[in-house]
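Quick check before the chapter quiz. The format below is the same one you will see on the exam, so make sure you can read both the input and the output lines.
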Amino acid sequence: MAQDAPAPALVLTPLDAVTTTATRTPQVAGDVAAPISVVPREELRRRQPTQLQNILGDLPGVEADGIPRPGVQQPQIRGLGGDRVITTLDGVRQNFSSGHRGRFFFEPELLRQVDVLRGPASMLYGSGAIGGVVALRTIEAEDIIRPGRATGFFLSQGYDTNGGRWRSAAAAAFRTGQVDGLVAYARNAGNNIVDGAGQTIPYTDPTTQTFLARLGWNPMPGMRFGASFMHREEDQIIPSAANTLGTADITDRRLRAQQFALNFDWAPPDNPWIDLRAQVYRNTVDINERRLTDNRRDLTDLETWGMSVQNTSRFSVFGAERHALTLGFDGYRDTQEGRRNGAARAQYPNASQDVIGFFVQDEITLGRATLTGGLRYDRYEQSADGQRSVTNDRLSPRVSFAYRVTDWMQPYISYAEAYRAPGLSQLYNSGVHFPISFFPFPRFNNFVPNPNLRPETSRNLEAGVNFRFRDTITAGDSIRIRASAFHNNLDDFIETLVFATTTEQRNVTRARIQGLELEGQYESGPWFAGLGASIIRGENRTEGGPLALIPAHKLSMSLGRRFQEQGVTLGGRVQLVAEQGRKPVDQQTGIRPQATPAYALTDLFVTYAPPEGPLAGLRLDVGVSNLFDVRHRRLAWDSSSERSSFYDVGRNVQFRLSANF
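Here is the expected output.
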């Protein structure tokens, strides 16, 4: 009697990935009552990202703000970017903010996972999470050591044809008894990038080096001590305003970023009352710039000391319901210093801020219903040399309700409030912004400090539905879908107002951002597919008209096929982006910028990783991004001053050969 063919091995989708970013407790991404997306290591390896846009571009409502210059892009979520999005690297806050010099600095070759939480999240993360949270995690020993072994080694060499960029990485890891560790190194170096029109984009050729070390100790079941250290260097000839296409103030820039963290996790297997996580960290960013025209030297430094502690207790009060009660504390201190030729620099004043926050969250499950409620209290103090200090506090609530109507459908609704404290530079900037004229005598436009700035706030109502299906097209396959709609009201937006002789920061705008998002994945073992779509609209409720930097409507689709016996995976991605003509009138010129044209991008990828035999452990990734060399611009850097200059990155063929042994 013939036997049925075995069902293909099920491969989890990104919506099946476990994440702690959405609730700060482990959850399956596709079951959370929040719009959370996960980019796992396998997808990162296929993409071979060289900059943030390569990672975020396909996610609904998300893209990278800034020109295609490695190291200066920053995430933008639902039209909100900059300090309105919190970024973390291995749990460490990345708080650097100085004009146009970039926000945070990371090595794509060393990433293992990227989580993106869309929408206000101050209840869990405090100041800054108006747009959302982007959490990056780097590789660990378990990513390098093959099953059944005590040591592991990883070598990788990649090459990009666009810019002639070489990408090298190496790692070694061990696991013996209760101790494990890892050391890793990555280096990137190349030439300037070429855009879709065949033009060379200047100053896009940094040389970067990153060193990562980890050590972990598991003295008993459920307990772990960890330490990690990361050092990054970037050296480049680049404009001082690095995330613009301006050609003034060209500098020889030397960037050094370091972070050190100590972690303690304790979750005794037989004690549901204790699931403790604690972290202490120090993060520094130091930028040393020498202007080529006159050797003027600028130093821009930020030091962050931070600490977080939380415990989750799981229990039942009445017997039928289950609670996951989390109590937590976060605190950090930022100290910034700016120098110009050895003297204090007014454009980046010597200043500091202390922020502490306490939060409580209870996830209550009763049958098919889950009610999650939380409240956070934050207090911050900000001060600068010779200027008035600022003290303020804020309550940030969040509540969500999800109900699993059937095994395959779970609708949810949530309400959240968030805030962003004014940045130190926004409060205390002074000095020259730009020259107005030099004849008959020098005249300048100057920054005016404003310590009276109020925090920006948001109130977001969101409704969605999570779907999960099994055995739909073939035996053992899986479909995950999330659809959501949101309505976000924002008050006291801080804007930079440029007048004839002064530049000031003021709370001037009320805004509304609303939209629809759709995300889905399909997995059957051999076949896999992905879908992401977003429609977002922003309104300036103070002056009327559209809100700036609202991303265009977009649709991203991917399809792939695994030939598992041969170790071959091939597939492609298509991104369709609509025209975006809803732009506010330029404050200085009084002219409405032209629409950003629609475009379509196509990427292809193929992976060869023999599952057995003498070549097992080797992997070859080949990819082509922007296959048809399309000339396109993203809204996030399509300003009127840059329209006549350059487009986004043109065709790029990528190769990477790696070995894991």
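If your answer matched, good. The first strand starts at residue 18 and ends at 19.
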